[in-house]
Design brief:
Blueprint lengths: L1 H6 L7 H13 L5 H18 L11 H39 L4 H39 L8 H8 L2 H26 L3 H33 L3 E2 L5 E2 L5
Antiparallel strand pairs: 1-2
Length: 240
């Protein structure tokens, strides 16, 4: 599936146009709306691949895609909120402990330990959230209900399956490899930095498509979702 995921973004006739649009939107994601569009597109990838469609979606129906991406962002934000809050609470407690100690070395050490423990706990919870979010987005993509993203009765057997864990690791490897490639380019003085800066958003978007191809295919396998055939009709996908 790893090699298939790398080839997947190029399966469509308009794949260059799609990657160019996605790369520009990724570059402009700090403007919020472009970020929603990228998330909305990735949700389309999940919907298509969970049904066995081997051709990537295109950018169209921009309003619907924006709203879909906004919902996806809310889902990811909610899951990320707990680690962020814990990090903030422990960090604040560490600072206040040091301040209350009037600058004493013992208070400073204690405050530092509290802050460090908070960061470690937040890091672990952040990893858990990162593991859950793709499955949560997939359940939302399948049902079009935000509540489904928090339906742990449905999510639990997926999250505890070896197939999903393997798929998540493969998706992580794809994204990590893209990050490493961009970082290597940025190390090269001047020219490499410019090329890496320009190419980075496009490489990142391409890798995200490949990663969510893996997630969508795996979700479809585990949920026995109907597959699309070449004529656009559906047929039952064999259970895995």
């Amino acid at each position: 599936m790893l090699s298939e995921s790398i080839d997947y973004p190029r399966n469509g006739e308009d794949w260059v146009k799609t990657v160019l649009i996605g790369g520009v939107l990724t570059l402009l994601s700090g403007l919020i709306i472009p970020m929603f569009l990228v998330i909305g597109y990735l949700l389309r990838v999940v919907r298509a691949t969970m049904k066995g469609d081997e051709e990537p979606p295109v950018f169209d129906e921009w309003g619907d895609m924006t709203i879909d991406g906004l919902k996806g962002f809310v889902i990811a934000f909610v899951y990320s909120l707990v680690p962020a809050l814990i990090a903030g609470v422990f960090g604040f407690a560490g600072i206040m402990s040091a301040v209350a100690g009037n600058g004493s070395q013992t208070a400073g050490i204690f405050g530092g330990i509290v802050a460090l423990v908070g960061l470690l706990v937040a890091f672990v919870l952040g990893l858990i959230a990162a593991y859950i979010i793709p499955a949560a987005l997939s359940n939302y993509a399948e049902t079009d209900r935000i509540g489904a993203a928090f339906d742990f009765g449905t999510l639990r057997p997926i999250l505890t399956s070896g197939k999903y864990a393997t798929a998540w690791l493969m998706a992580f490897v794809v994204l990590f490899a893209a990050t490493v490639a961009i970082s290597i380019l940025n190390v090269i003085p001047f020219v490499g930095f410019i090329i890496g800066t320009i190419a980075g958003p496009f490489v990142t978007f391409y890798a995200a498509i490949a990663a969510y191809y893996i997630i969508g295919r795996t979700w479809g396998d585990l949920h026995d979702i109907e597959m699309m055939d070449e004529g656009g009709t559906t047929g039952e996908q064999p259970a895995v």
